[in-house]
Amino acid sequence: MSKGLIWRVTLILLFLLLSFFYLTPTLVSKLPDWWTGIFPKDKIHLGLDLQGGTHLVMEVETQKAVEGALDLIATDLEDSLNAQNTRFKRIARVGADRVQLLMYDKASAEIVQTFVKKKYPELELMPPFDEGGFVNIQIRMNEKEGESRKDKAVQQALETIRNRIDQFGVSEPVIQREGIDHIVVQLPGIKDPKRAIELIGKTARLEFKLVDENVNAAAALPSSIPEDDELLMEKKVDPATGAVTEIPLVVKKKAMITGDLLTDAQVRIDSQFNQPYVAIEFNSTGARLFDQVTAANVGKRFAIVLDNNIHSAPVIRERISGGSAQISGSFTDKEAADLAIVLRAGSLPAPVKIIQNVTVGPSLGQDSINKGLIAGLIGVALVIIFMAIYYKLSGLVANMGMVLNIICLMGALAALGATLTLPGIAAIVLLVGMSVDANVLIFERIREELRLGKTPKAGLDAGYDKAFLTIMDSHVTTLITAAVLFQFGTGPVKGFAVSLSLGIIINLFTSLLATRVVFDIILGRRGVKRLSI
Asked: Could you tell me which of 259, 298, 262 has the C-alpha nearest to residue 283?
C-alpha cells in the first residue's frame, strides 16, 4: 500500500472515529462518570417540531419606544430648567415625534434654544412661534433618528427576552430577530407555555411615583384631575376569600425613580404575615435618588407602579438609605418569582404583541421523529438495493460511501451543537440521493472509459478526473442555495439549510475521496483485470 493511500485511509478512519466520539452521548442513554468529566456530553439538539414546545412570533411596538424616549427628554428638560430657575408654562410630548415647550417670554425661549442645541444635537429644533401669549418651542425627532431608536428598541427587546428566558430555565431556546420589528422565540420542551408567554411579553416598566393626596381619587372625574397627574388602580386581594378590590389612586405622572436603576430583585418571605414579597436593590445612582426622594417626602405615600398598575402605595415613614426597598402586595409564590425575573432581566423598551402562537405537543414531536426515521430507512434501503443491482460491486462501494456520509453528518451536527428539525431529517433523506448521484456520475464516466478499452486502473482514474468538475459544480450551486435559505429562512427552513450545507460538504469528501480509496485498495491487488460495474 502506497504512502498516499495510507494517508487517505488514516484520514477517513479519523473522521469516522470523531463522528462516533461526538455521537456517543446521543447513542448511549447513560454515560459513565469519567466520560462526562472530559469528553462531549451534549446530545444532538432536537428542534421544536421534534421535541414539542412553543413557537412564538412577537411584534415590537417600536413607535412606543420613540414616544417613551421623547417622554424622558421632556422630563429631563423639565428637571434641567427647574435647576436653572428658568420659568416655563409647560413641557410635554405632543404627537408621536416631538416635545413642546411653552415659555413665558422670548428671553427665556432663547436660553432654552441654546440649551437644547447643546444637550440634544441629534434632535431638530423647530422655529419658535407665538401661541396665546406664550412662545411655543418644539423639538422634533427626525426620521433617521426615529428609525435608529426603533432598531435599538428591537435589539434591546431581543436581549431582554433572552435574559428572561435564561432565568426561566428553558434549555436550548431559539431567540432571533426576523424582519424589521419581529422576534421569533422557540421554547422546546416547556411544561407551562402560558406562564412562559406571560413572562416574555410583560413590559415590566417599574416606576416609583408620589401619590397626590390633594385629589379625592374616589370622586375624581377625568376633567378634574390636574394635568400633571394620572388616575391608576391599586389591586388588593382578600387572603381569606380571594376577592379582588380595585382602589383608585391619583399619582404624579412624573416617575421619581424607574426600574432602570435596579441591580437585583429577589423573592423574600415576610416573617410576620408569611407572605412573599420582592426585595430590590438599586445601583449607586438609584440609591442616591431613593435616599433624596424619601428624605424630601416623609409622611407622603409612594406608589410602586408596574406596567401602570399600582402594586402597593406605602407611606414613607422615614428616610431610606442604603439603596434597598421592597415591593409587597397580594402575591402568590409564582407571581413573586416571575416579577423578580422580569425586574432582574430589565424592562422591555416597548410593548411586544404576540402575533403567532403555535404549541407542539411532545407526543406529536415523537410521532414526527418516528415517521422521519421510517422515511429515512425506506429511502436508504431502496437506494442500497438499486445500486447493488445496477452497479454490482461498485454499487456496494457507493452504498458504503452513503452510510459514511450519514454517520459523518450526524457527528458534525453533534459537534457543532446544531439543532435537528423535521426539515433537517428531510435534508438528510435528500442527501442520501445526492450521495449516490455523485457516484453515478463517476461510474458512468468509468463505464465509458472501459468501453474504449482502457484498463480498470486507467478507467477509474479517468472517471474520477472527468466527473470532478461536474460534481463540484452541482454541489457548489446547491451549497449557495442552502446559504440563501439559511440567511433569509425562518426556524424550520434554517434547520433544513444547516443539514443540507453540512451534508454537501461531507458528500464531497465521501464521494471523491472515500469511495476512491476503496477502489484503489481493490485494484491494488494483483490479478484484477475486470471491474464489477
From this structure: 262
